Amino acid sequence: MAVATSSWQDFHPDDSDDEFEKSGEASFSGKTALLILIDTTPHMFAGWEDNKETPFLAAIKCCESILRSKIISNPGDLVSIVLNGTEQAKNSGNFPSIYELQAFSTVKVDMIKQLIEMRDSEDYNDFPNKIGSNDTYSLTDLFWQAKMNFDTAKTQLFSKKIMYFTSEDNPHGSRPNLQTDATSKFKDLGTVELNIVSFKEDFQFDKFYSKLTDDQSSVILAKDLESLQKIVRMKQRLKRPISRSTLEVLPGVNVGIGFYSFVRKALPPRALNINKRTNEVVERTVSVVRTDTGIPVLKSEERKMTNVQGETAVFTPQEMKEIKHTQEPGVRILGYYSARDFDNIIWYRSPVYFLYPDDDRIMGSKDLFSTLLKRCHLLEKVVVVRYVLTRGKSPKLGVLIPSVPDETTPSVFPQGFHLFPIPFSDEARKLDVELGAEATPELVEIMEKIVKKLTNKNFDILEVKNPALQQLWRKLEEDALDEKVEDPEELFDYTEPNEVLMRSRLSAKPKDGGESLIDQLEQTAAKLSRSFGKAKSSAPIQKRIDIEMEARHGRLMGCSCALLRGFLEERGVEIPKICGKRNLIDMVGKATGYRSFFN
C-alpha cells in the first residue's frame, strides 16, 4: 500500500474563486454538430454585391471563417459541409444532386485548405467539371441525408445545428406535395437549430420556411460579405449551461435551472509534448511504486495521509470522495433582503452566474421561476441563497438579483436571476485603512469634468482584443496553413492608456474661451500644495470612520462605543445614560435605515 502525504488544500480543491474555470475551460457535456448546407443551383453563381463575387463564393468564405473560428473556440465540435443541387452525387444515402464535400469531423487543417483552394481558384477548384450544378434537387432527400449524418456522428451531441445558404425562398413552389414531404422529413430531425442565410433581397419567410421554424430571426439576409461573416460567426456562439441543477424554493418544491456564464476568460491553447524527431504527440504515463520493493502499486491501493496534532490520519480514495461530497448540488433559498441595501460591487468575490429555468429537468419550472422573478422585481428584493455548483464542490453563499428587461429600454440579458457569490460572515474582514485628506469641492468638480471628457461613450468591452493571443493564433495559422502574410495588420493593445491623446483632449480650450481642464487642474493643485505647506498642526492624524458606511455593510460591531455615541449625538438622538453596545448599534441602524443581517 502506497501512502502519500497531503496538505489540507488537497481536501478542498475548489477554494479558487473561478469554480468553472479550474482547468482552464468550462466542463460542458456533449458537443455541437454543425451541418452547413450550400445551395449550388445556377442562380447561386450569378453576380452579388455589385457583381464583385457570387453568392456561392460568399458561402465558401463564410464556411472558411466558421472553421477558423471553431478550431480556436470550440475544437471539439463537429462540422460537415454538404452541397445541394449538384450534377455529381456523393453521399451515404446515394441520393441524387447531393454532394458531401466534408463529412462530420472535428475541424482539421485539410478542411480549411480545401476551402481556401476553392476560394482562390477562378472556377472554384474545377467545380463545373468535378461537381457541377443543376436545378433538379429534392429538399426531402437533403433533410433525409442530414438525419443520416447526425445519426452517424459517433459522439454524444449536446445540440444540432443546420445553416443553409440559399437564394430561393420558395423551393418546390409549383409542387406542394414535395414541400409537404420536405416539411415532414425536417421534423424527423428532432430538436435542431435552423438558420437560413439568404442572398435574395426580397426574401419572404412565409412562403415555405415558416413551416420549418417559427423563429423568423433565424433568417440572415446577406447584404455584404463582411457583416455576413460576422453574423454567421455569432450564430455559432454556445448557448448551453455550464451546469444543470435545481432551485429549492420551499422544502419539497424544486425548480429546474441551468447555470450560464456570459463572460469567459480567453486562454491560449494547451501545450502538448511531442517527439522532436517525428512531431508525434507523446503520451505520459505515471507509475507509482513502493520505495522499499519497487513493486507497482494499483490505484485502489493508494492512500492519502495527513498529520493532525501528532496523529496520522489515512484516507482511502472512496473516503476522499465522501469528504469532498459534503452536500448535493443545487441552490437553496435562505431568505430575502432589500435590494437597496445590497451593493454588488462591494461584495464582489468571483465571476457572476446567470440562472435560467430548465423545463427539460422539471416540468413547469418556467412558470414558477417566472413568478418568483416578477415578485422579487416588484418588491425590490434580492434572494439570499446557499448553492453548490457541481458534485464535490464546497457550498457557497450567494445573492440572486432579478433581471427583468424594461419594455421601453431593451436589455441584452433575458429574464432570469444573476447569482452574485458573496462571502460568509467569518470571511468578511475589516481593513484598518488610514484615510488621507479629503478633496476640496473645487477639485472634485474639475475631476468630474476630466472623467467625463475622457470617457469613451461607444466603449464595448467585447471589442477589446488581446494582442498577445491574436499574435499567437496568427502565427499558428500561418504555420498550419503555410500562409505567409506580406503586410499583416498591425495589432494594438487598446488597454494601454494613450497619454498623448488624453493630454490633447484635456488641453483643448472650451468654445466660450475659458481655460482648459488641464490648466484648471494644475492651478488647483498649486493652490492646495501652498495651503498644505502653510498649515502646521502637531496633532496626530486620526483615522476617520464613516459610521453610515459601516452600518450599511454590517461592520458596526468593530466600531467603539465612543464613535457610536458621537454619531448619534450629531444626529440629535437621545441616548440613555446606561446603554450597551448592542443597543447603540440598534439605535444607529434605526437612524441610518440600514439594519444589516451582518451587524
From TrEMBL:
Region: Disordered; residue ranges are: 1-24
Tell where it localizes.
Nucleus
Per its UniProt record, what InterPro entries does this chain match? Answer: DNA_bd_Ku70/Ku80 (IPR006164), Ku70 (IPR006165), Ku70_bridge/pillars_dom_sf (IPR027388), KU70_core_dom (IPR047087), Ku_C (IPR005160), Ku_N (IPR005161), SPOC-like_C_dom_sf (IPR016194), vWFA_dom_sf (IPR036465)
Chief site of localization = nucleus
One GO-annotated biological process of the protein:
telomere maintenance
On the tree of life, the source organism's domain of life is Eukaryota
Give the NCBIfam families listed for this entry.
ku70
Q: What is this protein called?
A: X-ray repair cross-complementing protein 6
Q: Which organism is it from?
A: Folsomia candida
Read off the lineage from the record.
Eukaryota, Metazoa, Ecdysozoa, Arthropoda, Hexapoda
